[in-house]
Structures are given as C-alpha cells and as structure tokens.
Amino acid sequence: MNGPGIDMGVEDLRSLYSQTFSVNHTYLNEGHGTNCYEVAIYADELLSEWFYMKRQSADLYGFIAATCAEQLNINRLAAEWNILTMTGYGTDQIIRNKAIAPTWITTSPSSRLMYRTLFANIFTRFNWSSIYVVIDTGNYSSYPYYATLFDEQLMGELRNMQLTLRRIDTRRSVDYLGILHEFQKTSRILVFMGQGQFFRKLLLIAESLLMTNGEYVYIGFKMFKFDGFGLMDWRYGDADDGRAREAFRSALLVSVAPSAQVVPERLAATWRERTQRRFNVTVDNANTSVPWPTVTSTYAAFLMFGQVLNETLANDPAFDFQDGARFARLFWNRTFHFPFSEVRLDEKGERIPPMIIEDLDPETGQLQVVLYQDNMLYNLNNVSGAHIDWGGPAGSGNAVPRNEPRCGYQGYRCTVSVSSVLPAVLAVAFTSITFVGVLIYVKRYLYVVLDARWWLLSEQRLQIPVPLQSPPQALSEPDITDSLNAWHWQPHNQVTHEADNSVPVAEQSNSGPPPHPVLSEKIQINITD
C-alpha cells in the first residue's frame, strides 16, 4: 500500500537533485511476506543478505520505508551498522533512547509521545484520574502498542492515577455487557483502543443500559482516517443509527489533526494507478479511494532526506556521510515545509503532529473539532465557537462528568449505617426529652403562679371508683336514717350536677323512711362553698 509513495519519493529525488547526487534504490521485501507479521519475520534475513552480500559501494546508505512491525528489527541492525533509518509509519518508544536508536528518525503521523501528551492533557483538564482502558488485541496490531501509552511514566506524571486495563479479542465473541458492568464499578471514563465498528457496538449496549446519560465518557482512539481502523462514526445506514447518534453524544474521538493527513492530489492519483498496476491491489470503494496518511509521510521522508543531504553537501563538503548517527542529528529540531503539509521533528528525531479532539454536534449530527493540541508547546486549546456536548437529558446542565459519583462508583458512600446515625439519634432524643421536660415545668409553674386556687380539687378529680357489691341489708335504726338527711342517693345514670352555690338538701319522703340507696359503679359528689 505504501509502495507508490516510495516510488514517487525516489523519482522526485532524482528529478530535483540529479545535478548534485545520484540515487540507487533497492526493494528488499519484494516477494517476502504479505502482511506485517510475515515481513517482520523475514526482516533480519533480508537486511543481513543485503548488507553482507548485495550492498554496492556508496558514500551514504539509508533505510527508508513505511514499516509496520519490522521497525525494531531494522533499528537493531542499522544502529549496529551506523546507517540512517527513516520510517513513515512504524515507530516505537525506544526511538527516544539515542543509545539504542542513534540513527532512527520517524515521520509517522502516529506519534506515541503526542498521544500520551494528549491523554495527559485531557485527564488533567477535566480532573479525571480513574480510567478504564479497553484494548483490542485481535484485528489490528497497532492497538496493543499504543496501549503502552498508559504506562508507569504516565501514571507518575499524573497524581493519584488509577488505571484498569481490559484486553479483548474482537476476532472472537466479546462480552460487552460484562465490560460495561465492570467499568461502571471502577470508573466513569472509558478509553477504547479498537476499530470503529466495535466502538459503536459498545456505545449501543451502553445506551441500552442507560450509561449514556451524561455521567459517562467514552473516548475513541481514532488515530487517522483509514478504512483498516473502521468507521468511527454513528452512521452505518442501519436500524441502529438513531440510537447510535444519541449514544455518540457521550463520546470523544482523539486523532491526528487533518493538516497532518493531507494527501497531495498528484500522489493520490499515482497511488491509485500504481497500486493496481504494480502491486496488484484494486481500489474499488470510496473508503480506499484516497491513500492513508502513511503513504504521504513515507513520501515526505524521501523529500526530507534529499533536502538535508543537499544542504550538507553545500555547507559542509567534508562531512563524513558514513556516520549515520551524525547525519541523523541534522534532522532533529527542524520543521520541513511542503506544499501539502509540514513535518516537525523534535529533539529525538520523532515527528510531532498537531492533535485534535472531536465531539458530536447534537444539532447537526456532525463531528466537530472542539479541542486542539499544538505541536510546539503541546498545549490543549479550545476551538473558537465549539463546545463539548456531554450528553444527558435536556435540562441536565451539560456539566463535565465527575471522575467519581458523590456516593462512589457503587453507591456505598451514601448508605446509612447504625454507627453513623446513632450519635445523631441520641442527640435528637436528648433534645426532645429536655424540651418536653421544660414544657411540663413551665406549665406547672404558670399554673401555680396564676391560679391562687391551685390547691382546690375539681369535681372530676374527686370521682372515686367503688367496686360493685350487693345492696346492703335494710337499715332499722332511725339514727342512721337521720344521718343520711344530708344525702340523696340516686343511680349513677340519674345524677345531676348543680351549677349554683346552694347547699344541697335531701328530699323528704312522705311515705315513710327513705328508701335504701342504690349503689352504682361510682359515687359522684357535688361540693359547694
């Protein structure tokens, strides 16, 4: 796929600098391996065969290729042989260790350093420290490599960083439901390092679990536009598009800025024609009608090589071009400008592309750039007029999702325990008893002070209970009858109460002695002054 870029690079070197130097180019991989892993297996053999048996005499040697998985093999031998190495795609963190990779330069748009810086900037800006990372180890080999972004160094740079790594293989059945349940118990920020169609599937299941309500964030690792990475979008033209669009409101997509992915039209046209004619690969759909950015970055490596070599020949004719490490240092800390793009290399010879974060515009349904990381100061900047939509229902305030819910990931912090509420209960009980006691005291005090007749019992309080008993025997002695002249006995349900101050007088019977009293359950007594 990168062959046409290499062909055009060699052709342009010969065209631009034919009066200054000549270029001989040899493909080492023709007929050996059809994928990244097979090429890596044969890399040591191919390089050694060329170096010891097929190499022709020259003033300067260099390995320039896109590479895929064989870059470490190339670097190991090239460093030993002190030969310049330039890769258009393949890279590794060891490129920053110049004791191990003294001759290695990369123009790859997928800079591990910039991705790591971008994630660190995101987590710092939004105060996120508990991160759940899902890594697809199956379909595309690059994802496990980029998962090393989340290493001990990053955790050391960010305080209180807690990472949960979950590896999946999308070539087999994936338990997305289990992943989301585990994620819910440990974090609210999920980073998905896998192809677009699987990211969309994860979001659809999250939406069915009500986990796209503005409390969760799903960060998709988009890298750059290439059909091999899958379509990182909600639009698939199926029945789930509506739900996917709503779910994508909770997603952020990180990738290289478009300015680092530009493919010149001349290169694109030549790529389409030569891909089919020379490499027998048919371009038959819109997704592959434009070459992926590594074709451009590999092509740019040839242009950079010619520019530095031409400058050195003009400025330092005595330069020792057999010293590949010294020649490689001439590329460091430079920005190369081309009509289609610019390539900036840092102090280690690694390309530093600008980075972007995209978010779904809920009104238009289009992805828009909301944050931009420059390739000079590595700052994360707001894009004018763009705002992040965090998802969630209308009226939710669009607040940045918290790193951890107030009640904890599983809600245990808000569970009431006996030990936590006992002091409060005792305090309330003591206060209530004290208050009631004060009220009783005040009532009794006011009763005594304001009522001078406090000692006089009311008639209700003089109701004396008397047990039921059989009527007494007839009274025969008149003195007993006389002693009852002051009393009038009546059944309980016939007793009346006098309201005036008259002294009660017993009614006298004209028919003889008073009848025997009929006792009721209670004796009621009216007392007057």
Automatic annotation (TrEMBL):
The chain crosses the membrane at residues 421-442. It is found in: Membrane. Residues 60-361 form the Receptor ligand binding region domain. The keyword Protein transport does not apply. Keywords: Membrane, Transmembrane, Transmembrane helix. GO terms for biological process: signal transduction. One of its GO terms (cellular component) is membrane. One of its GO terms (molecular function) is peptide hormone binding. Signal peptide: none annotated. The keyword Cell inner membrane does not apply. Gene3D superfamilies: 3.40.50.2300. Its main location: membrane. This is Receptor ligand binding region domain-containing protein. It comes from Hypsibius exemplaris.
